[in-house]
Amino acid sequence: MGTYQEKLSILSEMIAFARVDHSLKRSEYDFLLKVANNLGVGKDIFDGLLKEKSPKVRLKTQAERIVQFHRLILLMNVDREQHKKEINTLYNIGLKMGLPPAAISQVLEVMHRYPDNIVPPEILINIFKAYYN
Fold first, then answer.
1. What is the pLDDT of residues 12-55, one digit of tens each?
2. What is residue 117's DSSP assignment?
3. Angle in degrees, 0-180, between the axes of helices 4-18 and 84-97, rounded to the nearest 10
4. What is the pLDDT of residues 81-121, one digit of tens each?
5. Which residues of 71-98 are buried (b: 16+ CB within 10 A; e: fewer)?
6. What is the residue extent of each domain of the chain?
7. Which domain of life is it from (predicted)?
8. CA angle 99-103-104, nearest 5°?
9. Contact status, residue 84 vs residue 54, Cβ threshold 8 Å
10. End-to-end CA distance of the chain, in Å?
11. Are 50 and 25 in contact (CB under 8 A)?
């Protein structure tokens, strides 16, 4: 995984996405804290990101961007609610990351076929692979 600044940027982006519906539910907070721990970011630093965003750092590799997109899908579904605004925001984030629009759309469509809308990583990877070949 990338630099510490990249990790803070990833978390800031996720926090902003979680707040698209103008709230941060407990389930979202808990999920984000787990991601922070996995990235090696402590609770104090994470809680600081809730108050002040970290500067945006573009993820260098396509693989890192796909992993981040997958994290955002998981975050969107952690509260078992989906809103049109969240889906549209996630689509636009994917576009800004440079992910293929058709792949983004396909992932957002197929997620409904899986329990809790959690797209298995291998399915997600195969969707993106199809658009890079």
1. 999 999 999 888 899 999 999 999 999 999 999 999 999 988 88
2. G
3. 150
4. 777 888 999 999 999 999 999 999 999 999 989 888 888 98
5. bbbbbbbbbeeeeeebeebbbebbeebe
6. 4-132
7. Bacteria
8. 70
9. no
10. 25
11. no
Residue type, 7: K
Q: Tell me which residue has tokens 């469509």.
A: 109
Phi/psi-derived region of residue 110, left when phi > 0, alpha when psi is between -120 and 50, beta in every other case: alpha
Nearby residues of 9 by Cβ (< 8 Å), 6 or more positions away: 54, 55, 56, 57
The pair of structure tokens assigned to 68 is 């981040």
Question: Residue 96 corresponds to which tokens in the numbers above?
Answer: 């800004």
Could you give the C-alpha distances from 124 to 56, 70, 76, in angstroms and in order? 25, 8, 15
Q: Which two tokens stand for residue 42?
A: 């402590």
Cα dist from 92 to 4, 48, 56, 86, 97, whole Å: 25, 26, 16, 10, 9
Q: Tell me the two tokens of residue 81.
A: 């609610």
Length of the chain, in residues: 133
